[in-house]
Amino acid sequence: MNPIPEAERLYATLRERLTPDIDHFDALVGIHSGGAWLAERLQRELAPAKALGSIDVSFYRDDLAQRGLGRSRVRASHIPFPVQDARILLVDDVLYTGRTVRAAINELFDYGRPARVELAVLVDRGERELPICARYVAHTLPQPLPAGERLELARDEAGLFTLRTLRDEPPTTR
Amino acid sequence: MSHPQLDEHGRLQHLLSLDGLPREVLLQILDMAEPFLEVTEREVKKVPLLRGKSVFNLFFENSTRTRTTFEIAAKRLSADVINLNVSTSSTTKGESLLDTIDNLCAMNADMFVVRHASSGAPFLIARHLRERGLEHIHVVNAGDGRYAHPTQGLLDMYTIRHYKKDFSRLTVAVVGDVLHSRVARSEIAALATLGVGELRVIGPKTLLPVGLEQFGARVFHDLRQGLRDVDVVMMLRLQNERMKGALLPSKEEYHQRFGLTPEKLALAKPDAIVMHPGPLNRGIEIDSSVADGPQSVILPQVTFGIAVRMAVMSLLAGQGAQA
């Protein structure tokens, strides 16, 4: 069994691991929605002078034909800095198959050719389907989650993080 | 009432008309258009959502703007676009509409964008696809006869929401030849579904259909009266061929009574926006000084139209297979 880790504690760990390296980057880009919250707070607390962007990978997913665009609202990506030659820290809440990160990297490259891209995540839940790994990880789950279970970051009104597990919804019929 | 454009789960299968389109689907399309607008502002104006899909533009009636914006929308989604100039092809050799469709299906089409002079032609194609068991192929109505022009109606709603936000507080006037206008029909249906505060329809008696009141519209035959305190003025194109049919005395008289001039526009709210689906008849239904003036949003309408069409196409393509 995996106990659900405490998100605020994990956030502190991630921040601590990033602190010595933060000047290796020109910009932070969070993946919508959990990654965007994390990137926003990391930028505020570690490097308020650095550029901050967010990405919604819905238009770059590889499973449109199977799943459609879904019911959740697609956000506009927001990349307010030149990607060309930038050193970018990509931030997400949970790293799983690697498909979301693949989509985010593809999208970034449509804005320009970054000098380098590194990945920071709160939780690595394993079971990759692509050769992708994160350089900064706060916590690695010791065992895989049961199939159909999702781990998701939530943010309360005070801006504090919590992690929760959700069952994947069965295919929507309406 | 059956909805030939919805599948058995109530999801959009084809976009044929805004009549009877549920409010939630309409809002879903408008919401989805917003992030696509951001894509159209990028350096690389392209996302891979429809990569490998074949979109056939079937224009049985001429249109430059609509065909071009559909083509741009599909290309920005990375689809392959095939434009068929049908007036110069096999239909002139006598091939029927459905034979043409069958042939294009055999070429593995994924989507048809159809413009046709006969009302109902896109419905006919959608029904034919269903009968053939080709439900994974989608139809988008790009204007049929006098009946509907749903993507124009949607982009107009997007434009109004962009500038004016809440429909329930707005007074919107549709001005001109409503009787022959598929654009007006789609606009009025969408405005009713979205719960516009007050809907006014303004035009000469000979160019207004009967029964507008059932949509909650107030009818005016005097432009000056009708424009008083409106938030949005939606002009319609006066189709030249109507002039020949004795429905109107002359262009000059039409302009004098129903042409939008700066002096008449001054009767609307000071921040009222002016819309027009194009192409413009300058000096007939609209003065150049209004069309090019600060209250005109005619060119933003064109830009929004691309984002709205991208939203429609990706919504349809994403609902081909079951999750």
Description:
The complex is a heterodimer of chains A (174) and B (323). By secondary structure, chain A is an alpha/beta fold. Chain A has helices at 7-18, 34-46, 64-67, 99-109, and strands at residues 27-31, 51-55, 87-95, 116-124, 136-140, 149-155, 161-167. In chain A, the strands form two sheets. Chain A has a five-stranded parallel beta sheet, with helices on both faces. A two-stranded antiparallel sheet of chain A has the order 6-7. The longest helix of chain A has 13 residues, at 34-46. Chain B folds into two domains: 23-149 and 304-317, Aspartate/ornithine carbamoyltransferase (Rossmann fold), CATH 3.40.50; 150-302, Aspartate/ornithine carbamoyltransferase (Rossmann fold, 3-Layer(aba) Sandwich). In chain B, 38% of the residues lie in helices and 14% in strands. Chain B contains twelve helices and nine strands. The mean pLDDT of chain B is 91. The A-B interface holds A 56, 58-61, 64-69, 73-78, 106-107, 110-112, 171-174 and B 9-11, 31-32, 34-39, 42-44, 46-50, 314-315, 317-323.
Which percent range fits the helix content of chain B?
25-40%
Oligomer: heterodimer
Tell me the name of the CATH class of chain A.
Answer: Alpha Beta
Q: What is the residue-averaged pLDDT of chain B?
A: 91
Q: Can you tell me the CATH class of the largest domain in chain B?
A: Alpha Beta
CATH architecture of the largest domain in chain B: 3-Layer(aba) Sandwich
Number of strands of chain B: 9
The number of helical elements of chain B comes to 12
Strand order of the largest sheet of chain B: 7-6-5-8-9
**Beta-strand fraction estimate of chain B:** 5-15%
What would you report as the Rg of chain B, rounded to the nearest angstrom?
A: 20 Å
Silhouette of chain A: globular
